[in-house]
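so my prof wants the structure for this chain in the tokens format not the other one, which i didnt know existed until like an hour ago. anyway here's the sequence
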Amino acid sequence: MEWRDEGLVIGVRRHGEHSAILEAMTRAHGRCLGLVRGGRSAKLSAALQPGNTLCLVWRARLDEHLGAFSVEPLMLRAGALMQSALALAGVHWLGALMRLLPERDPHEAVYDALTVIAERLGDAALAPPLIARFEAQMLSECGFRLDLSRCAATGTRERLVYVSPKTGRAVSAEAGAPWRDRLLPLPPFLREGAPVEAEPSAGEIADGFRTTGHFLARELFAARGEPLPDSRRAFLKAAASARKPRRNQRSGGAEPVSGIDGAGASRPG
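here's what i got, hopefully its the right format
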């Protein structure tokens, strides 16, 4: 059996003295693992780094076998990503998210989003909101879709500022006012139709990660008997640190960053 695809490296581990097991998210074949013979050589090891995009040819005698990869570099980003604590933490957290998906289960939309994020992982303004949106996308891909298009109580599409921690549905400012202390925040950049290149404030990013973290913890990781991974906490900490030097263009003061590195599973009443 044989197929050819492009894939983004999300993990690699040693196998014997000379080879490696490559883990990649591919466009048409999902998350796949395969043996790369000679993968620990100087020639190949530089290509087999998380964040790189490769042309992969997978071969095996039977479909259920691990199989072997032949690899050719398409986009080598790892060297640049390693220069940024934010990008490096982002690569590790994205890999953990990819491992929520079954092996060899195609998710082309996930691959496309992952590629967009990989190009922007070192950007302190864009990477955090992109990854918060990606967390929401992963919830949907795994069977729990956040419905952020209209108010669960009134049906309006206006002034959607909360999310129900039980149902994952949006709630308007007016309908949610009596229970605002028990609802999760819905920052503008997470709403449907928000521009991809939006640069939300640190407070909005913290709100977004608080909301997605609540549902990731409850719907995906708790089902596996696991807490949210340390790699998520490390990414949030790196995101907070990366934004500290940024200046608020309107006031000339430092943009507030409190809350981002603490965003996780919330405990609403």
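also thought this was worth mentioning. The helical segments are 42-45, 78-81, 85-98, 108-118, 127-141, 173-176, 202-221, 230-243.
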